[in-house]
Amino acid sequence: MSTEEKKNFQTFQDSNNVYKPLDEREASNFVKEVYSKNLPIEIIGTNSKNYIGNKLQCAKVLDLSNLSGIVEYLPEELYIKVKACTPISLIEEALEKNNQQLAFEPIDFGYIKNFKSNKGTAAGQLSCNFSGSRRFKVGSIRDHVLGFKGINGKGDIIKSGGTVVKNVTGYDLSKLVTGSFGTLVALTEITFKVLPVKDSINTIAIYTEDNKIVRKIFDQLLSSSNEISGSVYIPNEPKNNNYTINREKILKFNDLKSEEPFLALRIEGSKKSIEERSKEIFKELELQKMKTSILDFYQSKLFWEKINNIELFSGTKNNLLRAVIPPAKSLDLMKHLKNNFKYYIDWCGSLFWLEVLDNENEKIEEIKSIVVKLGGYLTIIKNSENFTSDIDLFTINNTRLLLSKKIKESFDPKNLLNPGKMYREV
Amino acid sequence: MSNIALPEIDQSTINKKEYIFKKLKKLTSSENVLSHEAEIKPYETDALSAYKQKPLCVVLPENTEEISNILKFCYKENIKVIPRGAGTGLSGGSLPLQDAVLISLTKFNKILEIDFENKCVVAQPGVTNLSITHAVQHKGFYYAPDPSSQLACSIGGNVAENSGGVHSLKYGTTTNNILGVEIVLMDGTICRLGGKTLDQEGYDMLGLICGSEGLLGVITEVTVKILKKPQTVRAALIGFPSHEDGGNCVSEIIANGIVPAGMEIMDKALIIATDNFSKAGYPRNVELLLIVELDGTASEVDELINKVSEISKKNNSLNIKISKNEAERLSFWIGRKAAFPACGAMAPDYYCMDGSIPRGKLAAALKEINELSKKYNLPVANCFHAGDGNLHPLIMFDGNKEEELKKTEEFGAEILKMCVRFGGVLTGEHGVGVEKRELMCEMFNDNDIQQQLSIKKSLDNKNLLNPGKVYPILRKCAEEGRVHVHRGEEKFPDIPRF
User: Fold this and answer.
1) Predicted-complex ipTM score
2) Domain count, chain A
3) Residue A168 at interface with chain B, using a CB cutoff of 8 Å
């Protein structure tokens, strides 16, 4: 773009290169304009998760944080329609009044950034598709998005889906856009499915450091009809002063021996049902023979919040990795990690959150290759100061990369929206 | 056959058909290529039998490699291809074309792996939905989506259509219950999307393929999640004196934080039809019958069923029957599951519609459908997956009368437009196919449709895979969202024709 062109480009006349439209129409006009000038743009909301993904150097920033507010909330229809950058906290507040929730448990990535809660916006959550502990039971964010509106790379406002759960009218673009890190559309409106909050919660903590027992319990829980809605394993931490925070500080509860390795499982429902299912689980898992403790409603609520907020890695200066593998492979990965890494396992054995110390890039590569061999994928959520940038932050194979390029081109033919945010090529 | 526009016939394909047959026989084996009139007749329609068309030929490949080679050949020679599963689709999604090779996946009928450790089953696409459950039920597992055709419909077809069933509110549809697929693109590229992990990184192409109605790739393998069967399942059969009372009851159940496994509604016409047909013992003094099914642990189910009874009473229910055992629960479903054949027994033909609406609009929708029934002078019976808002009006007509089929189609189209007007969608689980293609403009504007067509073009640049389905064929949506064709001229001549 020549200097002359820049001068005549009205949205570029503001000093800081950030354009903050007031509504969808203004945002669409802006994208149309950058399309005509071939200018790449970075799309942002409230920046709560800006440390995730490749760093961008774009001519302009499209700040959508003004697109905020609840458009329509019908509790009896189990949906809420919001403007894209509505804070998750505002949505949760509205849902709570009707005893409803976003069942995928939005993760609070604020703690990792600076020890402070910040769940960011609806669009931010959708763009990352990182779901909380209930994922293996109720599905991920993509399973809770009923529809959306957004602006594609040409500046056209497009929509897909609706407000009903059963909908097969046209391609399901809601799924495609979820987890696309703003590389396909600039989101302007989102409709989420909402679900009732269960009356009560209880947590059983089982103390063990035997990986085989952990794997066995995860398998028993996945095979149980007692409807477990969360299960994590928190192993011993390596003795090392390079970790920002230790577990005993974070997981301080009256009824939890957080200095010991333990597996925790969550049961939600009516009090009577919890009681009945707890008894059955004790029988199923033969817990009489093991050391256990129970966290009551209040402790449980807080415990699972801390797990979902990934508070065990609050303020970390190291590399933070997220690996997803088939559940039966959890033992293989545990064997490799031993007690050499600070990590924990969520999703009943499928999801590993782990920290790799700064200056240990080779270990990231090693873990990534094991995860891929086990049939999984790995995302580098946050990288440390001395992270070498030639490791891909996301995992992909060649065929899927080829497909991704085609899909990207169909939404954003000039590669202008968050170019290279996920993969350098798309 | 009803008058429906299909893509222009490519005469050059027809002219070289002997060459095509010869080549295809080499790419699979001679007995897998059917081209004689009598052999291909069974493939001329799917379950939307109002539309019929014989294909150029039918190929029954036996492995992914063969499919890839067949597609490569067709791509090079510009030959259209129609994929087909079990042929149970209700929207004409696998309706053949005269100049197209129809690929039938019936020989892909094996379960490849039962992986109890990872709680999944890997199956070839021709495996039936129900046989997946049969393969794992000895260990107490099942596959959740249960379309009413589950005995016959194939899992590959389920993925292509994103099939639902009566338990979608609690357990989701196909898209929420699959972990991976292998597909072959029109140019022969074989891709594996997803696997045995939850979610996948990058663009969710598994989510895109699911429900794409065979327009983006041929599905050659599916990995599905299996779930442990709930401990207890009980149902309540509740009769109401009016549509409003029944509709209010449904909304109130949901508003009370209850998510039933299934919640089905039948109107009076269907109650009588199904009761006559299957002797289900349904009460005949009611205007609306509601089946609420709850599952979970025994005490939880007891608790919820009591709550449902209370809510029903508050909403003027005339009678409530609660299943005491499995046999009684199944007896509640006998009539509902026979809804289609029961209507088939009442008229020479019936036409099943499939819109979705917000649950709260139930009574208003039924009122409007009954008014339309009077307007068109065609009887209609309604069943409704009330839990997830999916409406199935069954219009009864005589297909031998040309005029009556046309009237039925118009009646059906008016119902679907009403669904969109009420904030719902054109199709909840049967797909757009050829049936609702021209109505897409009721829901989507030109930008929306163009975006979807761009995706189609990016994966099938010659528009050879299942053309003429899902998207309007000779028409485009004008700015006002209405179809406008003037003397056969297209308003947007530069838009690819799909």
Assistant:
1) 0.95
2) 2
3) yes
